[in-house]
Amino acid sequence: MSTNDPDHGGDGVALQEGDLPARFENPGIPEHQHRMADTDPKAAKRAERQVAFLFVLSMVGTLVMIVGYFAVKMDHDLGFIDYLNRLELSNKLLGIGMAISLLGIGVGAVHWAKTLMPDEERIDYRHLQRGSDEVRAEAVDMLATGVEESGFARRPLIRNTLIGAMALFPLPGLILFRDTGPLPGKYLATTFWKAGDRLMLDPEGGPIKASDMVLGSVAHVLPEGIEEAEHPLNEKAKAAVLLIRLEEDLLAPESLPGAHGGIVAYSKICTHMGCPVALYEQRTHHLLCPCHQSTFDLTQNCKVIFGPAKRALPQLAITVDDEGYLVAAAPFSEPTGPSYWERS
Amino acid sequence: MSDSAINKVGATTGNWLDERLGASGVVKGFSRKVFPDHWSFMLGEIALYSFVILLLSGTFLTFFFVPSAAEVVYDGPYTTLAGQHVSEAFDSTMHLSFEVRGGLLMRQIHHWAALIFVVSMIVHMFRIFFTGAFRKPREINWVIGMILAILAVVEGFLGYSLPDDLLSGNGLRIAQGIVLGIPVVGSYVSFFLFGGGFPGEAFIPRFYTLHVLLIPAIMLALITFHLILVVVHKHTQYPGPGKTNSNVVGFPLFPIYTAKAGGFFFIVFGVTALMGALFTINGIWVYGPYDPSPIGAGAQPDFYMGFLDGAVRIMPGFVEFTVWGHTVSPNIFLPTLVLPGLMVTPALLYPWIEAWVTGDKREHHLLDRPRNQPTRTGLGVMAITLYTLLWISGGNDIVATHLHLSINDITHVLRVIVFVFPPLAYLITKRICLGLQRKDREKVLHGRETGRVFRTEEGEVFELHAPLSANDRWLLVGFDSPEPAQALPATDSSGVRRPGGALEKVRQKISKFYFEDRVAPVTPAELAEAHHHGDHEEISASGGGDEKHAISSGH
């Protein structure tokens, strides 16, 4: 055996001064070390028993699983806590039984292979992936013959029309996907809110009186009637609003026209990727999106002061109706939610 | 059954199969095929077995899961959610978890197996990378592996979107935000994908078909091809005495690997079952059904989405701009579409990049020790560092609450160190590799330390070193150490300009970057020289026995 493998240049045979090879010789496979079980029949017997024990253990695991399946009944009459406990017991019995059943077989088989099956290393030889020169020449000939017989090269009319047909035929495949959805139209630019809609508490429902909003209070609100919309979740994903009351003099001047007293309403849908901006820090008057930590400052008309969002949360102008309930004074004046290309 | 009875049954079955399938040829060709042994070769096995576990447990789940967004009222035993309007997908997942015996176990096994699948693929890929197993002739298998890893991440994301719970719904909302952020076509793609506005009712059945049929079928085909190529190429092996580039040293497929690999499947399945039994995962009953309005703090996606989420989190928002009435959102598409492309493309092309730099057209079946490829190893650690930092960024809120730090400070710091740490990691790793190589040289030249300290009559103190055995030495000297590509003259011998001169210059520059700092393996001549020096000291340390060949390096 040469130092380097024969395929890799064979530096090993080049000799240097003093007749030392340029590279070391590969010393060859080390002498085999026998295991205990190879030489000692007692050790072999011991290993045999260990393997058999593991296989028996697997059978026990299977039994545990079967018994667990039938013995632990999921009874609807149980109370909530008892039911959960029962479920946990069932899950553990089935899972641990299954694990023992599988691990017994697995560990047993591996132990068997490692202790009792021959561990003397064997050698296979590799050959280059490429075919021999003769085979390659034959293959090239065959392909050339095939091309010749097909007339692909000789008949450009057939060749070119085939290329044209192949280029066109996937198009219907693309077009077929057209009806997977409607075109966006004005959908992204509009919300369920219209002027006069009452602000309803989310999720409990019910209108809110301006007088109910004490200083520092926060409410999650939705437009009146949204549950009756054709797709309530789709509407909520655009129309969810946060209602907050803070001291009026803290509000930015541009917030004031849409505010009622110190009460302001802002879209709860993050202008970054659409998560609900549901965390309000009362002390700093910051709104935080839990998904990517975009932070909006209520006192600056919900401008972004940190994070990956760019645009301020849109404000919903509010007022009160004759009965003193908070209502939208106008729909949102700009699209809510994440940015998109058509948004100006 | 007696031995003779077994033989008789075997002979009858064998004959039946052979006469119909020519099975004897297959057995002759494959049963004694040799596979080398190493623990790191099991990483790919774990991935394969997890995939099988996913198919088995997933099939069970499909018998109970209803892929529909139609609204129903929950009235199951988990009374906390009683009366809530939920989708059939959520309702059937609750039913499957709480009322089907073994249903929760199967769900948890499925989810844990998915995580194990992705982790084992990633670690397997790094094993391939650091040992150079991607080199010719295995470049195609490297690409197949990368595609499989990407598909696995997509498949995982689709899978955990299906139960339609609050956590997955918000993940889906982010995905839709990403789609909306694609310039020009974003809102159209989103409308086609979701069948209209978000969330709509179409995505659950659509994602279901992708999750249980299309993507698994593609993955199964790719895995099959991946394994066929492993057999065709014969497995790589680690260097060592007797291992050459043209042999495979190991154990036969039957019976050794049948028992070991077959047994290992049961072990992986068993461990996954144990995790499903003991550790709750994705408890959708805690999150509740999806509703676009509520959300929990500290929400985290499955780990494999973490690096993308992290990239999004540390991206500053000010880069978004409007031009001619259109909104362009690099704050969204840079971290979610461009960055993954920038991370995957070089990795995908790496086998060709390295082959181009080294100009090496040979087949490689002997693995590299990572230290013997300092630049490649450095680049790999650089990639891991970048990935890890992005992943940590994805948990910046968790880091902040656990370490009581300001999330803003953490984010600012991460914005800087994602650019600074990876190159640093490259430099440090490369230096460590070179240091280890020098240590190897030292060990070959001066032997291993024996721990026996001697003092000469002149008062000189040194430690005796014992020479390495030929076997031990081989591991430290038996590797190729490429040198930087030599600059060729711009014109050839007949004065004609060489074609591709500019590209060749680039290649030389990169080659220099790769191999300028190199520690060549010890040659026999160098060892003889070292022995020659050592002999002088041996005289002064006159002792008996094993010091006969002792060499000192104690001065």
CATH topology of the largest domain in chain A: Rieske Iron-sulfur Protein
Which regions of chain B contain 5 or more consecutive residues with pLDDT less than 50?
Answer: 536-555
Relative strand content of chain A: 5-15%
- Shape call of chain A: extended
According to DSSP, the number of beta strands of chain B is: 9
In the CATH hierarchy, what is the class of the largest domain in chain A?
Mainly Beta
What is the level 1 CATH name of the largest domain in chain B? Mainly Alpha
Main sheet specs of chain A = 5 strands, antiparallel
The ordered H/E elements of chain B are HHEHEEHHHHHHEHHHEEHHHHEEHHHE
Indicate the percent of residues in helices of chain A: 25-40%
Q: How far do the termini of chain A sit from each other? A: 74 Å
Note the run of SSEs of chain A as H and E. HHHEHHHEEHEEEEEEEEE
CATH architecture of the largest domain in chain A: 3-layer Sandwich
The third-level CATH topology of the largest domain in chain B is Cytochrome Bc1 Complex, Chain C
Placed side by side, the strands forming the largest sheet of chain A appear as 2-3-4-5-10
Question: How would you sum up this structure in a few lines?
Answer:
Chain A has seven helices and twelve strands. Chain A is an alpha+beta fold and 344 residues long.
